[in-house]
């Protein structure tokens, strides 16, 4: 897909990571560029919510089919942190757990293999002390309200996005200030989609509409409105980080992030499944 996107640059090829379009993160990135927090040092992300499993056994239950918090939510966070910092991860360390392997609807011979808890660390940007330290905690065993918090800390202050609102505090100030109040969502409520993702999706669709409306015939598109959208190259990077986190969870060691330059073995997942059954 990456090769095809390069071969046909006139076609619109973007990933659906909608958090980049959420106004709170658009504003956060602009403030980071303007130096609100000074030299960026730490990123901390917390996402808590109820189970991601469907009512019946399906792809959300299977790690090899793309289910679990790391694949469905963690991938969007990895992309978001790269967008905010302007850097990419070069080393990762992670832990994945499946606490709920069966429930009232998924039982018998069926077992859940997708993760419902994930914690990982990333070193982004330069090497040594110049790296930005990122920690991400995803916990989908918590009933109640959905928690989505992204905080960036620098040498002169911090910024934190809670849900769809953005707050900031500079060093020496008495308290944080509300920088963007985006709580007045007037669109439809979708029970299966948390508000930050829903609001980001709405903004992304509007940007796509503007991109095609820029040309009367609408057979081509303008780059400007969707310039912040992740490309297929970004998608490949995100998937590479996800795989490195999974390797780290198995090895217990820090793993390097190496972007693949050749197409993977199409039988890779099948071999993994056979090996797991053999063990």
Automatic annotation (TrEMBL):
Signal peptide: none annotated. Belongs to the Gfo/Idh/MocA family. It comes from the Eukaryota. GO terms for molecular function: oxidoreductase activity. Residues 25-159 form the GFO/IDH/MocA-like oxidoreductase domain. The keyword Phosphoprotein does not apply. Pfam families: GFO_IDH_MocA_C3 (PF22725). This is GFO/IDH/MocA-like oxidoreductase domain-containing protein. Keywords: Oxidoreductase, Signal.
């Amino acid at each position: 897909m990456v090769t095809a996107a390069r071969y046909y640059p006139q076609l619109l090829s973007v990933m659906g990571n909608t958090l980049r379009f959420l106004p709170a993160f658009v504003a956060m990135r602009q403030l980071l560029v303007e130096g609100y927090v000074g030299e960026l040092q730490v990123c901390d992300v917390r996402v808590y919510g109820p189970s991601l499993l469907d009512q019946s056994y399906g792809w959300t239950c299977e790690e090899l089919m793309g289910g679990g918090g790391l694949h469905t939510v963690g991938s969007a966070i990895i992309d978001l942190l790269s967008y905010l910092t302007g850097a990419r991860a070069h080393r990762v360390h992670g832990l994945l757990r499946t606490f709920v392997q069966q429930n009232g609807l998924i039982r018998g011979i069926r077992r859940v293999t997708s993760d419902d808890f994930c914690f990982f660390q990333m070193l982004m940007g330069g090497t040594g002390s110049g790296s930005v330290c990122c920690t991400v905690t995803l916990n989908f065993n918590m009933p109640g309200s959905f928690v989505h918090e992204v905080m960036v800390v620098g040498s002169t202050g911090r910024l934190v996005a809670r849900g769809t609102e953005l707050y900031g505090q500079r060093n020496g100030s008495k308290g944080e200030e509300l920088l963007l109040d985006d709580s007045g969502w007037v669109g439809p409520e979708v029970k299966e989609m948390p508000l930050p993702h829903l609001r980001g999706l709405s903004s992304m669709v509007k940007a796509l509409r503007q991109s095609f409306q820029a040309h009367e015939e609408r057979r081509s598109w303008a780059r400007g409105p969707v310039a912040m959208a992740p490309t297929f190259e970004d998608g490949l990077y995100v998937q590479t980080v996800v795989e490195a986190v999974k390797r780290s969870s198995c090895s217990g060691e820090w793993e390097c992030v190496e972007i693949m330059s050749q197409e993977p073995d199409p039988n890779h997942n099948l071999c993994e499944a056979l090996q797991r059954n053999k063990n």
